[in-house]
Each structure stands twice: as C-alpha cells, then as structure tokens.
Amino acid sequence: MKKILLWSVIPPFNDCTAKEILTRNLIGSNTGNLLFHHSVVRALMTDADTEFETQFSSVARNLDEAAARANETCSCFAIPLANAFRKDYIPKLEVLTQFIQRLKIPCVVIGVGVQTAAADKLKEGLPFDGQVRDFVRAVLDRSSLIGVRGEYTADYLKRLGFSEERHFSQIGCPSMYMFGGDLPETRALRLDAEASVCVNGKIDSGAEIHGFMARSCQEFPNYWYIPQRIEEIWMMYAGMPIPRRHRWNIPEYLPTDFGNRVLRERRSAAFLNVSAWLDFMRDKDLSYGCNIHGNIAATLAGVPAVVVARDLRVAELANFFQIPMISLEEIRSGIGIREACERADFSGIAANHPKRFARFVDFLDQNGLEHIYRNGGSVQNAPYDLRLQQIAQAPAIYPRTPLSPAQRVDCLPVYWAAVKHYRVRYIRKRNARRGSGRR
C-alpha cells in the first residue's frame, strides 16, 4: 500500500459537515485551494489503496518526530503551493524548509508562485530572497525540478541563481489539469441583461478595481456572487459580518454584511467541495472578477471567464493559461466589462491545453512520481473519483438570514472560530504597528 505525504490542511477524502469544515478551516482560508489540491490528489492516486497523510503547520510542533514518521511510512512528499513566495507566508515556508531538510524521501513542489506588487520589483532584492533560496535548494536536493506558476516566478528564480529546465519548469497551476489533457468546450458568450453571471472579488482590491467591479455589476443586475475567503463564508453560514475595520469603503457589489442585496436575495453561493462548485457553474453564461481560481472553476465548467488582474500572481496564471484578462491599465483607460468580454479571445485556452498538459506530465515523470496519466492514461474511472462517490460531501452554502434560534445554537462553533480569527488578526496588526514605532 502506497502512502503519500501531502502539504495541505485539506483532507483528501472530506466527509466532514459544513460546520466542521468551517470551524476547523479545512479549506485553508480560501476555497480556491480545493481546486489544485483536488487535481493533485486525483493525479497521484493510482489505485484504490493509495493513502494520503496531510501535513501543515502542525509539523512545527516536532519537526524531528514528524520527519521520522514520514521517512518510515511515506513514499514521497507532494507539495502543492499557491503564492507561497510572499512576505506573510515566509514563517510557514521556513518551517517547511526545515522539515524537508530532515526528509529522505522525494519532495516535489507541484506549483508555486511569487507575489509582489509589480514586475519591476522582481528585478530588485525582495526581503525574503534568502528564505526562498534556502527552500528551493532543500527541495532540489530531493527532486529533479520545481514546478512554478509562470513567467514572473521563473524570472524571480533566475535572479536568485536558478536555471529553467535545470532547476525549475513552468507548469502553471495543477487545477487546470483536473480533466487531464481535455477541457470542456467554452460555451458561446452571452452579454445581455438576462445573462446568468457569476462574480468574484477581493475586499482588499483597491478603489480602482472596486469601482470597475461595481460598474460592471450594474450591467448584470441579477449576478451571483461566489465567495472564496473563509471570512465571507463564515458570514453566510453563521451570521458573522465582516468587522467594519476590515471593510472600509467597500462598494455594494461585494457583500460584507446582511444589509447587502445579494445576501438578502440569496444570490450568493459558497462551495466546500469541487464537484458542487463545478456543477453550479455549468449553466452560467459568464464569470469575471479578481479571484483566479474562481475563474479557473468557470473555465473547467466550460463557462467564459475574464480575470480582473489585481496583481502579478493573478496575471501570471491568466497569461500562462491564456485566460482573458483585464489589466489595471485598461481599467484606468475606461474599459467596460462588455467591451472587455467582446475583445476577449477564449480560443487559446483549449487550443494550447494539450501542449501545456504534456509539459505537466513530463514534469511529474522527471520527478519520478507515479500518476494516472502515465502511458496515455486519463481521468476516466480515476480511483480518486470512485472513492469520492462513497463519501457524503458538504452541500453548497447559501446565505442563512435571519437565523432561527436552533440555527444560532448550531452555528456557535463557527461563530466563535470567526471571532477568534478576527481577534488574532487585530493583535497581529497591533503588534506590527508597535514594532514599527506607530501608535
């Protein structure tokens, strides 16, 4: 029996209730994580007996003990990452580096990206260069190549002294390979007022992007809002509004409390498993917004998607997979959502997917990973899918307001998880202000 160690907080076979998932934050704070974890586990589960052991921040409690157990029981360590080369992730990256240095099994990074404000910053020294360099070296001592998300991360690692196709390869995000070498055909674009539209957004996107999104939503008044952040889903499930200090001057399109029309009319839906998310998306006409994985979910469901590129990490993946994108410069020039969609070229997504997928498979092969795509294999009857059919997954979450007395009692664990989260965030920000001399 094969056991794979997985860097994840998300259980591969999650039969937890919505309350358990939200209380324990088993989505890793953002449902976008579900997409690439789902895809990686599906690819690496080559038979029904394959087991996965998840490892995340708890590894820091006893590095030596966790490493010894992994060396004894696991065949490899699969590390699917998102934008891990960023300032606030560095403490976790340092722990992960120390853990990898204690391992004797193969350690493979299946996708990672850098996060910074602008491409010019990549040419300068970033405050976490040393930690990233240590991490990459530790991984390369136990694998052939690191998989990176695209050109910006590739340029960053080149500046740190690493070479493309010798030390790393551009593979994008594993989420786009969920169906192997195939992608569903993108449905015809529909832009009339009755179009069924899904919108995704981020509360910290900035005034210019918020303004664009607000104007765009006025053109599709019956849009659905698809939240991904844990804070938004807590609000929908437990009636815990996002505190005012975290939502200053946010337009109406982005719901932050139950006075919002989208929540009052129950035109918002959150998903705690991939199957429910894609099923919901399949009859929609358009998706747009700042969340790259929200738009990847639409693409995987055959829905035209347009990414609003708020930063390099979003632009990097949109460019790599040729998902149409609206830049901040275009927003400043006055472009509207209809014009952006009419200009968009959706053909490159599917046309070049086989080539990108072949590169991904070659990456897995070079790292010696067993996977379901070897020798022309596909996702048909994938062991992972067959296992999921035996599990009752949590249903979609819709706004619950007003909460009945029984619901209030039921959701108390979720409510208090949210309270603790905001309290920790406040303390961290307060300490950061004191540390920088601000009062």
Strand order of the largest sheet: 8-7-9-10-11
Unreliable stretches covering 5 or more consecutive residues: none
Order of helices and strands: EHHEHEHEHEHEEHEHHHEHEHEHHHHHHH
Compute the gyration radius: what is it?
Answer: 21 Å
Helix content: 40-55%
The first-to-last residue Cα distance is 57 Å
For the secondary structure, the number of strands is 11
Average predicted confidence as pLDDT: 93
How many helix segments?
A: 19
Largest sheet composition: 5 strands, parallel
| Principal-axes shape call | globular
Which structural category do the helix and sheet elements fall into? alpha/beta
What is the compact description of this entry?
The protein has about 450 residues and is an alpha/beta fold.
Explain what the structure shows.
The protein has 19 helices and eleven strands. With 439 residues, the chain is an alpha/beta fold. It has a five-stranded parallel sheet, sandwiched between helices. A four-stranded parallel sheet has the order 2-1-3-4, covered by helices on one side. Helix 3 (63-73) crosses helix 4 (90-101) and helix 4 (90-101) packs parallel to helix 5 (129-140). The longest helix is centred in the last third of the chain and has 24 residues, at 412-435. The protein is globular.
